[in-house]
From TrEMBL:
It comes from the Eukaryota. RCC repeats lie at residues 3-63, 210-268, 311-360. InterPro entries: RCC1/BLIP-II, Reg_chr_condens, Ub_ligase/GEF_domain. It comes from Laccaria amethystina LaAM-08-1. Keywords: Repeat. Pfam families: RCC1 (PF00415). This is RCC1/BLIP-II protein.
């Protein structure tokens, strides 16, 4: 069974991949180069991940043979989709259709592992059994986004089309990383202009440690305390710096980033918040056991265990567009879903809107709320949504044989992967 990818929302540069440059107020099937609308490329079996920046999108696809492919669409003028992509767009090819992303790699030993996208920058993790993981950055470097030092500043382009982010300058608990130390990258979430990487490294004393490193915008403490010699916060830090070293008994398992804050989730269910709390986005319910965390630009959301084993969604932070999903309620609180009992199983947080996958007595459903200026909630309107509404299945239908295979949210964009009973090739 092969999924269909649907998208809605902001689309001025074709970043929805639906064959047009107009915003989509309802979910429409994505187009892949050389394929019928709504069909994945030949041999592709699953959408592993969607990474959506300001105006560009990447997809990581898995083939039937287990190999991964990288596809992209939208704006590539900052180099965020690679030189070959932009050359094809400049030659008249459409930016509104997903096409393969080709990178100039020195070795065929590497395979695609992880993707992430900030405002105009792309991050790609490549895996090699013999060499460990490699992190590549592409695109703009407005605030040290590329992680390679010598930031060019806002609006200036980078001469190097493909950059390798280095970690061999790091010192962990007094131990340096050996030369050519293989690393294993577990996750790489990105905010608008800052990045966190959770990784495992082998130290010079022979031990293996999990660490979280970050770079990019830093003024509010979103990548830890970064100051100059006078003790004043630096606006940004252009190379990886250590933010935390894992407690072996309670390591970091995931993280999520807003514009000016970051949240780490530990295996015990506790969380660590860093950065700005001007919107209350770090008032993080310390009494709760967390299952998943997500961040909008100015908010934090979590699936938490309450009353022993019940799962609920808590929301805290900015609410100018209904992002908290409580009709204008202030402070931390539970998001409720009108009409029937539902169990939240996954959160996808965009710039200022939220999607959640629910299991209910009626089947699987996707609900959403928050900022909707570009129709990014896919419900046919552009009015902000202050209370959760069901957005899939559309038209008030109930979940049934159709399987929801994934949900993602970006900068004014939303994505749903579905598998229908007749989607068999």
């Amino acid at each position: 069974m092969v999924p269909t990818l649907l998208s809605s929302g902001s689309n001025a540069h074709g970043q929805l991949g639906n064959g047009s440059l107009e915003d989509a107020h309802t979910f429409r099937p994505c187009h892949f180069l050389g394929c019928e609308p709504g069909k994945l490329p030949s041999g592709a079996s699953k959408i592993l991940d969607v990474a959506s920046g300001a105006n560009h999108t990447l997809l990581l696809l898995e083939r039937i043979d287990g190999e991964q492919e990288l596809w992209g669409c939208g704006d590539g003028r900052a180099g965020q989709l690679g030189l070959k992509y932009q050359e094809s767009i400049s030659a008249g090819c459409s930016s509104s259709v997903f096409r393969p992303i080709e990178l100039d790699l020195d070795s065929e030993e590497y395979s695609y592992k992880l993707i992430s996208a900030s405002w105009e920058t792309t991050y790609i993790v490549l895996a090699s059994e013999s060499r460990g993981d490699v992190l590549i950055s592409l695109g703009a470097d407005d605030f040290g986004d590329l992680g390679v030092g010598n930031a060019k500043g806002k609006g200036k382009r980078v001469a190097n089309p493909t950059n390798i982010v280095k970690f061999d300058h790091l010192v962990v608990d007094g131990h340096s990383l050996p030369p050519s130390c293989p690393v294993t990258i577990n996750s790489i979430p990105s905010g608008q202009h800052h990045v966190l990487v959770h990784m495992n490294v082998s130290l010079s004393d022979g031990s293996n440690r999990g660490i979280v490193v970050g770079w990019g915008t830093a003024r509010h403490g979103q990548i830890g305390s970064v100051t100059n010699s006078d003790g004043k916060p630096l606006p940004f830090f252009p190379i990886p710096r250590i933010i935390s070293v894992d407690d072996p008994n309670d390591p970091v398992v995931s993280s999520s980033l807003g514009i000016q804050h970051s949240v780490l989730l530990h295996s015990s269910g506790r969380i660590t918040g860093m950065g700005s709390n001007r919107k209350g986005q770090l008032d993080l319910f310390p009494q709760s056991r967390f299952r998943q965390v997500g961040c909008t630009w100015n908010g934090t959301y979590a699936i938490v265990e309450v009353e022993g084993s019940k799962l609920r969604i808590y929301a805290i932070g900015g609410d100018s567009h209904g992002q908290l999903g409580r009709g204008g309620g202030r402070g931390p609180g539970i998001v409720t879903f009108e009409g029937h009992f539902a169990i939240p199983t996954f959160l996808a947080c965009g710039s200022e809107h939220v999607l959640t996958l629910l299991e209910s007595e009626l089947g699987e459903e996707v609900w959403g709320w928050g900022w909707n200026e570009h129709g990014n909630l896919g419900i046919g309107t552009t009015e902000d949504v202050f209370l959760p509404v069901k957005i899939w299945p559309p038209g008030g239908g109930n979940g049934g044989d159709e399987v929801i295979d994934g949900i993602w949210a970006g900068s004014g964009t939303s994505w749903i992967s579905i598998i229908s009973p007749d989607d068999v090739r």
